Amino acid sequence: MDRPITPLLDTIAAPSDLKVLSVAQLSQLADEVRAETISAVSVTGGHLGAGLGVVEMTVALHAVFDTPKDKIIWDVSHQCYPHKILTGRRDRIRTLRQKDGLSGFTKRSESEYDPFGAAHSSTSISAALGFSVARDLGGEGGDAIAVIGDGALSAGMAYEAMNNAGHLKKRLIVILNDNEMSIAPPVGAMSSYLSQLYAGEPFQELKAAAKGAVSLLPEPFREGAKRAKDMVKHMTVGGTLFEQLGFSYLGPIDGHDMDQLLAVLRTVKQRATGPILIHAITKKGKGYAPAEAARDRGHGVGKFDVVTGEQKKAPSNAPSYTSVFADTLVKMAAEDSKICAVTAAMPDGTGLNKFMERYASRCFDVGIAEQHAVTFAAALAAGGMKPFCALYSTFLQRGYDQVVHDVAIQRLPVRFAIDRAGLVGADGSTHAGAFDVCFMTNLPGMVMMAAADEAELVRMVATAAAYEDGPSAFRFPRGEGVGEDIPEDAEPLEIGRGRMIREGSGVAILSFGTRLQEVEAACESLAAKGVTPTVADARFAKPLDRDLILRLAADHEALITVEEGAVGGFGSHVAQLLSDEGVFDHGLKFRSMVLPDTFIDQASPRDMYAVAGLNAEDIEAKVLEVLGVDVLGKRA
Ligand SMILES: Cc1ncc(C[n+]2csc(CCOP(=O)(O)OP(=O)(O)O)c2C)c(N)n1
Ligand SMILES: CC(=O)[C@@H](O)[C@H](O)COP(=O)(O)O
Ligand SMILES: [Mg+2]
């Protein structure tokens, strides 16, 4: 009769507890970590597939290296849940991505086992190199190990780091976690190259090192060493790109085989002198059938039933802003063969998968390469096309110099569709679309719009398509619209013209973007107190509707701007205009409601906006404060 297996995960308080486990026990532990990851994500939602693909690697890394002295740097870090389970955070793992809970990414302030935070991709090799150099200059000791995915390897930053590492020749370990997936199937020549590396003859750089592997291994690990030797027997020398860049290349290895992982990592730990890259082949979603079968391999999931894999979907009242944008663009592309679309590895997230299905030759997924996406779009525009460069606000940050240098200075009509504007919820501060209004509106010649609802978004897509005099941008949030009817044949807006929403007196609220719904809710509540603000939707942060703003200023005691962005954006431009026009000299009371000067941790968007003080109740309170009215509606 088989003896019952004693669970191991309950005995692991810290990674050091892994040191005494045999290969078989580490494999068992990996199975338990996988089950725990699935169970946790089923109640929180989040990034499932990537973590499942690195369970064995995570266990092996913690078994071989001495964290936190040795530093594991997870690229993007959406795959870090197994790492969190093993590094003292298992008791809070079901708070992942929740308000006051664990972050869905690595975070320095959360644990000493998270030496470097991430959430944007392709930073890990630079970070690992920085730690290696700091160590060699007398800073903190220990190895630096970057774990980077094949998708993340499409970004230029990874090559900038390898270029530098190959030159500096510091001891540095990079694990290429190759699961042949980005969020969508990976694109580009580099992806094909990686496939060739393991489709053809395997490589042998490991051979010499692995000869000594058995003797290097402590007793409990020797059982796996023979398999490692067998594996490297088949390896032959190859002039990989990585070797040309100055790395030793080891692999490809099976990233789910504990024997191989342990033997290779132990060998590297003992022998590495300079930069070394271990090419591990893994499966995204590994070990959970619904994730393995999903188109995105369970990249990002909602809460789900563990047995069936079925995700619990919140009932939806309106289409998402993303789908409204994509449907509108597809429709316009049918009429205008010059319209084309660019995404940086987010075809589904930006809705451009729909465009790709209809107009494949005019749709470009350039990989995780926002800088390239922007310059590529600039030249598409210079070449006579009408490019829509669809990026999340947070990722557009990476292409900023390109926006300035390649687009704005040359006044090229690139249309920036800025998705995920404002606070996004569970992804937290790294993904907040907080800064785009600031960094776009300060550029000469930029037209900057924000949609107040989905009907407005349709008009703004039409406006951007029609506008040829220079760059334009329109922003819209994550999530669903408010249920406005979608205009059939939307006319382009007049550039720099806002719209009146309701006429009132005393105070005017000038809204930019989807806070308009909160402004309206605030007005409902204020009406009961006898306060009836005028409300206008600015539509444009650049150029500003000067006439509208100056009229509001002249006709009211107070003017309040509201936006979903950091200081330095819409409200600051309005203040500049009012100051330039001498309006403040006549005693206008002015308030600008913006995101606070802090990074706001993950929670629901509503809770995040509560922290920011930008919900209806905050707007109502601001109106009362500026008018000097108490909560009962009486003037102080
Ligand atoms: C700069 C940047 N652009 C886009 C993203 C969105 N994103 C997050 S994970 C991911 C795919 C990463 O693929 P890979 O590195 O292969 O990791 P895997 O999920 O396959 O483990 C993308 C595009 C990002 N995090 N950062
Ligand atoms: C890790 C990452 O950057 C993406 O997976 C991101 O979390 C996707 O966000 P959306 O869910 O808003 O598309
Ligand atoms: Mg991948």
UniProtKB/TrEMBL annotation:
Signal peptide feature range: none
Protein source organism: Cognatiyoonia sediminum
Superkingdom to which the source organism belongs: Bacteria
Protein name listed in UniProt: 1-deoxy-D-xylulose-5-phosphate synthase
Family, per entry: Belongs to the transketolase family. DXPS subfamily.
Oligomeric form and interacting partners: Homodimer.
UniProt cofactor note: Binds 1 Mg(2+) ion per subunit.
Family matches, as HAMAP family: DXP_synth (MF_00315)
Presence of keyword ATP-binding: no
Residues bound to thiamine diphosphate: 78, 119-121, 151-152, 179, 288, 370
Gene name of this polypeptide: dxs
Name of the top EC class for this enzyme: transferase
GO biological process: isopentenyl diphosphate biosynthetic process, methylerythritol 4-phosphate pathway; terpenoid biosynthetic process; thiamine biosynthetic process
Molecular function via GO: 1-deoxy-D-xylulose-5-phosphate synthase activity; magnesium ion binding; thiamine pyrophosphate binding
The entry's keywords: Isoprene biosynthesis, Magnesium, Metal-binding, Thiamine biosynthesis, Thiamine pyrophosphate, Transferase
Cofactor dependency: Mg(2+); thiamine diphosphate
Chain residues that bind Mg(2+): 150, 179
Catalytic activity: D-glyceraldehyde 3-phosphate + pyruvate + H(+) = 1-deoxy-D-xylulose 5-phosphate + CO2
Pathway field: Metabolic intermediate biosynthesis; 1-deoxy-D-xylulose 5-phosphate biosynthesis; 1-deoxy-D-xylulose 5-phosphate from D-glyceraldehyde 3-phosphate and pyruvate: step 1/1
Physiological role: Catalyzes the acyloin condensation reaction between C atoms 2 and 3 of pyruvate and glyceraldehyde 3-phosphate to yield 1-deoxy-D-xylulose-5-phosphate (DXP).
